[in-house]
Structures are given as structure tokens and as C-alpha cells.
Amino acid sequence: MASKELALMAHLLRRAGFGATRDELDTYVSQGYEATVEQLLHPDASPVMDEDLLRRYHIDQNSLMLIESSQAYWLYRIINTHRPLEEKMALFWHGLFATAYGKLNHAKAVVNQTHTFRRNGLGKFADILLELSRDPAMIFWLDNKDNHKDSPNENYGRELLELFSMGIGNYTEDDVKACARAFTGWTIANADYMSVRASRDSIWPHGRLDWQFVYLPGDHDDSEKTFLGHTGPFNGEDVIDIICQQPATAWFVASRLYGFFVSDTPDEASIQFLADTFTETNGDIREVMRALFLSDFFKGESARLARVKSPTELVAGTARLAGSYQFPEWGIVNLAMDVSFMGQEILNPPTVEGWHTGREWIDTGNLVERVNSAALEMGDLARPGVQTVLQRVRARGGTLTPEECVDACLDAIGQFDVTEATRASLIGHASLGGNLEFGERGSADCSEERVAELLQLIVATREYQLA
Amino acid sequence: MTTATALQYSHTLGFMANQGRGFNNPVDLAFDSDGIIYVLNRAGPEVGVRIAYKRITRCTADEQYLGEFGSGGTGDGGLWWPSSLALDRKDRLYIADEALNRVSIFDREGNYLDKWGAAGSASGQFNRPSFIVFDLDDNLLIADSLNHRVQKYSTDGTFLSQWGSYGTDPGRFNMPWGLAVDEAGNVFVSDWRNDRVQKFDLGGAFVLAFGETGSGEGQFNRPSGLAVDGNGNIIVADWGNERVQVFDAEGRFLASYRGESRDSQWAQDYFAANPDEAAGRWSADLEPEIEARPEYSQHRGYEWERSANVEKLFWGPTSVKLGPDGQVFIVDSLRHRIQIYRPET
Questions:
Q1: Rounded-to-integer distance, Cα B116 and Cα B125, Å
Q2: pLDDT digits (tens, 9 = 90+) for A20-72
Q3: Whole-prediction pTM
Q4: Cα–Cα nearest to B34, from B103, B109, B101
Q5: Do A330 and B333 touch (CB under 8 A)?
Q6: Contact residues, chain A, for B266 at CB < 8 Å
Q7: Cα(A20)–Cα(A110) distance, rounded to whole angstroms?
Q8: Which of A269, A384, B178, B319 could form a disulfide with B190 if both were Cys (CB 3.0 to 4.6 A apart)?
Q9: Within a 10 A sphere around the Cβ of B230, how many other Cβ atoms?
Q10: CA distance A181 to A163
């Protein structure tokens, strides 16, 4: 039976990353839980992933012009990163500040936005909002390029308050208007030309051009504004500072972090604890995340498997486990499309509200897709990660009973939290073939196939579909 | 043939088109005996309708479109990750494919003739063949990148010889990409992940190497295609630095070019037909200054971002070829065009 330390570490890496192999779990356990949390919280201490290989072989992932290519690019990063929490935070902020390719017609602009989330995702929330407000993809997505001194456009100002920081019910319509006016003049370079280009998918002669933020002081409304009870000639930075001082903002961020990292079921006391940390640290996300990962509510049994894996978590985690796509291979674009077919088209969320998560990830169609995709990876004995799992199973002995084999497989993929009912079902299936023999070549081949089949069953279980 | 010590921008060939007149992520080109250009379009990703965008475009240096042939696919004649092409003395076209680990052969009208090659590491097998050129005896040299070697074949696919293995010592390689043969038959290899160029004699014996990792003059960030002119000057696509560098025959740095493309005739035709887009373009600042951002990595760095912002610059140059009259053709893959330079005399 796995140690409690291993099970806890597997839990941490499912949430703070995209799962871990059994070998990785051993390494993490040997360094300890708190040290691992610190390692995750400081991604800069781990090497950055070189992109030269990716750019060489996937020419379409070099320019990132197309959505499929850009989705495959991010998936490859997630699978191969040495900085799992950096990618996880990027995915969290991408879901919260949902910006979609569909309107922009410019995949690299959305990719660039995720780069800012990688860089700032564990920083101060005020800095994150400031970068977000200057992000060309966001400016285009929520029409701030059309937010002028003489004709304000309220779209970004409204969503900044409603969906990105405080939540509805914590501000007035006048606050929305003031917020929008504070962000007048925050636009992108060559806005008119870029708008024409983005409005059509015509054959641009030489591909896309990047967008750059510009501030046009002449187009900024620097008159006095009253915003959330404060009055002054506010610019965007001032508005963000005021937003970040609001208790509603602390609660909003805390509740979103809780839902993404802890449980699909909200718990008021735990969220308040995170909100208090947010307030006490002046919105320092790294501090909030440290408090979260070290908390009893995160480490406790009630948080285990308390979230449905998002499609990205499921697909990337399984690919990492199977050892797939550790080098550029053309099939990764199909794997990225699997993520989309399961309902999470990364870089192209359905609306500005992002994805509906939790149980909504699962429906009859999506579940079949999820099981098939994971089973395809783990049932392939040619995958290096599957071979590693197999070696761990074989190391248990030349002959394994069905029960021993099930326990060995669960242990080898780090799936420690399974119910007795699930375990019994797996054993029941494994028993149909009797003991597994790894001694003689013919019987070993047969037994290896049975292990692969068992791995396919394990990734189809309820527990594996949960994080 | 004249020297290419200094290059002068001449004009640009092509623009982006998924099918028909234009290119889609071109990676290499070659000339037949009549000077007709064959441009290899790698395109991507390998899904749905986009698979058909992989093709060979026939055209001339003065932008006459002559047609196209080939398509994405894994069957006979199909292209998946086409990497390089070359024509033999009989004007048969040989195309290397890094995904299918094979060489496909067409006549110059585009009729499929044959294929050879297989995946593996034994003699006569490939692991991502990235470049092919003919030597002076009309044998094919192939950069077998993940086997870290150069292989020589006859035109019927008979394995003849090989040299190189993984490493950093002279004569060893780390994922070589480009190949070129000079007028004396010497072979030049862009040793991609070692950030250098190596020269070998006819028999594959090491002669010299130049270059090191970096972005300064004479340094490389993952060199790709290269060519040698009539005076022995070596023109190298410094892929990761988004530039082209010229060296003398001893490997001494002579000049560097960042790209200065103007609209090709095909692009001008496009804007003439889309005046609203053209109007915005003429009034836009197409050469903005950009801020260096902390997240830029060595291989996705400032120059890569500059090229994403400034359209005239090289972006992912993959191949350099000399035209029949000495012009230098640089395949500007991410901008879907060929920038053509002429030697300054």
C-alpha cells in the first residue's frame, strides 16, 4: 500500500501541475512536501523549456498563426515543462480572463497573453490586472481599442469589475462608466489597420503581424471621476489599485483559486482564509498559493479527488504518464484536438466567462472521448512511460496474482486514492485471465498485454477522471 | 559566377496562399535546367483541409506562376513533413520527408516516379532527413539529422557511404540541418545544435569548422540552410538569429543581413484587389519598435519577436540557394516568400 506521503504528493502534483510519474513522485517525496511546494512556487529556479526543437519541426508552431497549431504548442509546453505550476497558473488565469481566438483571428496574440500569465501568474494581483489591461489580445477582445475620450466603450471596464476582479453586486453602473473612462487611450498600435486585418480571414500576403500596446494620452479622459467612493482624475493604474483594495476582490480571487485548485464544492471558511491571506499580503498570489497548498483543507482527505479533471489536465497528465510527445511528433495536434473535443478549446474559450467546470466537464459524449483518449495512450506498450510502468509491475515478481497486479499498476501510475469498489472491479477483470506470468517469452507477452489492458481500465475509472 | 561578399536586395517572390499562386511555409527551393524554380511548401498543421496545402509550386524568379503539384499524405507521392528538394541532371525532383523518413521522386511535371528510404539508424535508413543536395557526381547527400550524420546515395537509392556521429568534436554533429556543395565538391554542413558550420572534402574528411553559439558577428543561433558561391563565400541562414550571414572561404565573417523585403508582385496584385486593406497598410507603422520582454528565451527571443512585428525582416529563414545567374534566394519560411538578393559587383 502506498504511503500517505506518496498519496499526498500525488494529490499536490495533480493540482499544482498536471500529474507526475511514479519516479517523479519518489523524488518529490524524498525532498519533502514543503520543499516541493516551494519548488513549485518558484518556477524561475527550474530550467525554461527550449523551444528550438518545437520551432524546427513544427513550422506552424513557430509563427503560431493558426489556432490548432497554437493549441498544440501549449499542450507540448504543458507536457514537457519543468515548471508545472507556471503552466497551471497560466491555465488558471486564461480561464478566468478568458480571451478567445474566435474574435481576434490572431492565435499568437492569445499565446502572448499566456506568456504574461507565465511571467506574472504568481505575482501581485494588481500587476496581473495592469498587464492584462495592457495586453493587446484583451484590448481587442473587449473592445478597448474603441474606448475613446469622446466616446467611451464600457466593455472592458464592465468585465474588469464583473468577471475579472469583484463580481456583480459590488459596484454600480456609475462605477462601470468611471472605470471605462479611466481606460480611455489604452489601445493597440495601428488599431484601425489591425482591425481591418482581423475582421477577415483573407490571405494576408505575409501572415500575421503582432500587436503592441500603446497609450494615447490625447485620447485619454483625464477629467475627475468617482470610482468606488474615491474621487480623482483617475487613470487605469489608479482604478486597478482601488479594485485591489476591495474585500470583494479578495473574496473573488480566493473563491476562483479555491475552485480551480481545491474543490468543485465551495467552502466558505476556506475561501475566507485565502481571502484574508490575499488582503494581508496586498494581493500576493504566491503567498496565497503557499497558504493554499499548506492548508489542512487542501492536504486533507476531503479535497482528494474533489475536482473533475479539466480536459487539459486529463490529456496532458495522461501524456506525461505515458511518456508521449517528449520530442516533437506530428500527432500532437491531434492530441490537442482531443482536448477541444472534450469541451476545452484552449486559447478559444466559449465566452468571456470562460469554461463551465466541475461536473459540467462530463457528459455522455465527453466521457467517451475522455476514456478513449486516455486509454489510447496508456494501452500502447510502445510508449516509454507505459514501458516504465510495466517495468515497475514486473519488478514485483515473475508471477503476480490478479490482486497483486492491480495494486502494482495503481502504484506504478501513482493512482493511490481508489475506492475498494473500484479496486474490486479491477481485480475482478484481471482475474478472468488468472495469474500473470512474466517468466517465459510467450506468457510474458500475453501478461504485458494484460497489464496494458488493465492500465486502460484504470484510466477509465471514476477516480482517474478526478483530480 | 560573381562574389557574394556584399548582397543587394533585389526583389521578393511570392506571398501566402493555401493553394494556387503563392506559398505556405516554404522551406526549400531548387532550379531545373531551364531555371524554373520549384518551391517546397511544408505548411501545417497536419489536420483536415490543411493537409492539401503541402505542395510544390513551380514559378520563375520574375514571378510567373507555372503551376503546382503534390499534396499532403502518407501514401506514394504524399508529403507530410517535407524538408528539402533537389533536382538531378535529368531534371528529376527528389524530396526528403522528415516524418515519413523517405525520399520521393517526381519528374518536373509533377508525376510521381518512385520512393526509397526507411526509418531507422542503420546504413541506408533515416531519422528525419532534413536536407538533400547533389554532389558533383550526381549522387545525393542527405543530412540525416537525428542520426547525426551525412549519408550519400546514388539516384536509385543505393547507399554509398556516410560520415559523422553525435558529438561536438570536429566531424561530429548535433542534429545537422542544411547541406551545400561547392564547385570543388567540398561539402558544407550547418551543424544545427552545435551552432557551427563544418566543411568536409569530397570523401567526407573534416576540413574546417567555424561559428559558435551567440548573436554577434560570426556567431550562430541554430543555423539552417546554406550555400557556397563561385568565389567560395559561404552564405548561411542563421535561423535562430533571424538573419543571413556571409563568410569567406576560410570561415571569416564578412557581412550580415536581417532582411528588407518589399511586397512581391503577387502581393501588390492582392492589395490592388483589396483597396480597404491596402489603405490601412499605407498609413500604418509597419516598423514599430518593440520592447524586450523578460520571458523571451534564447530560442524564442527578441529577434524572433521583432520579426513577428516587422514584416520586412527574415522570419525563420530555412534555406539559401544560388540562382542560375548568381542571385541569392533566401527562403523566408514564416513570411511565406523568397527574398532575392544579388551580389554587389
A1: 9
A2: 999 999 999 999 999 999 999 999 999 998 899 999 999 999 999 999 999 99
A3: 0.97
A4: B109
A5: no
A6: 205
A7: 27
A8: B178
A9: 14
A10: 18
